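Quick start: what a row looks like.
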Amino acid sequence: MACQSFASLSLDPPLVLLCVGKGSSSWPAVRAAGRFGISILAEDQRAVCEALGRRGGDKFAGVAWEESAHGAVRVTGALATVDCALDTVHEAGDHYLVTARILELTAREGGSPLLYFRSDYATGAFG
């Protein structure tokens, strides 16, 4: 699934926070598994984001990925990947506020992230 909100939450213990729409068709399977991967997409991966964000069907058709040692999906070419174990889930309006423990983090050198803002894609650079 494509997640609209994702942030670092804690360094000790290492936690991340994400917001998942209650209408997500992918979330029930992710929640049941208890583990998942986060791939921070690069600026040239707009088609990947669109594929993972669409409703129904095989979201990974045409998307290159590999499985991590923790059983998480890692999108090939992502700037970074974060393997996570589900920690807590809270209801928050029309979303779930999810916290997860970081199991492993990988990052590659170079590249700029794919950004989505005001219903459009953009690119950015870390300085």
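That is the whole record. The mean pLDDT is 89. The longest helix spans residues 46-53.
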